[in-house]
Amino acid sequence: MNGLLCDAGVGTLAQALALRPDLLAGYRALEAAVAAEPELDARLRDRCRARVATLCGGGAAPIDPGDSDDVVLEFVEQLVFDVHGMTDDLVARLGARLAPRAIVALAQAVVVWEGEHRLARTPPAGAPAPLRSYGLLAHAPGVLAAFMDLYGRLWQDGVVPQSIKEVARLRNARLTGCGYCRNVRFAGAREDGLTEDDVALIDDGYAGSALSARRKAAIALTDVVLGRRDLDDALAATLRREWSAPELVELAVTAALCHGFSKIAVALGQATADMPIMVVPSPTPPAAA
Fold this sequence. Notes:
Layout: H1 13-17, H2 21-36, H3 42-57, H4 70-81, H5 88-97, H6 100-120, H7 141-156, H8 162-176, H9 179-183, E1 184-186, H10 187-191, H11 196-199, H12 213-225, H13 233-242, H14 245-267, E2 278-280
Parallel strand pairs: 1-2
């Protein structure tokens, strides 16, 4: 985010997140949980992280045929590039290589790493009770708990109104194609004034809609984080006019985390599209749930 936050003296992702120390601490705790996950050995974890870095930088090198990790790296590539292209054959081959807990932990790790790269490369100019509702994700309880702590802080302790973060979350859901994320509404955003009429405008014609300037800016920033548009000088000026540097960090983190969570849900078969619109409580850290 250095190009967008240069006026705040930001040159690296760490400096950007330091504008929101609570989110930086949450990211560090999440990274530590991934590193400590017993089902992911260090060598495989490092190879997968390197693959994500290569993919997010462009020009990924092909996987070497016969590599014992080829199916794992193929899963990583599919998760980053096109989660809806995950085939039954790939899932079956991955299941023969890794245990369910390792697959879940790996998926969570990949989206954490990808999210960090997406934030950094914004173009210049045994589950505890609170985690049980997350079903399959609770196979890796330590990683999930760290993720939900960070996600809960983002929604409960933020400097951006929940209605605005909900706009970014739902924009991601429509672009990623996660049926669950698309049909769920967070209660805090509803209480903050986001209506279904507003939600209907979060589509590709949003720029000419009746949405407020701040909501349109949140959609535009989400599109930048997800790689759907470039950050030109005009958009950068608009974002700086509508939002402070800490608010921009929070919105970008919202887009990145929601993007990752949606991809996990799709990749692991948890993104059901056949469900009604339903209002659920806004996320809270597990200890506060």
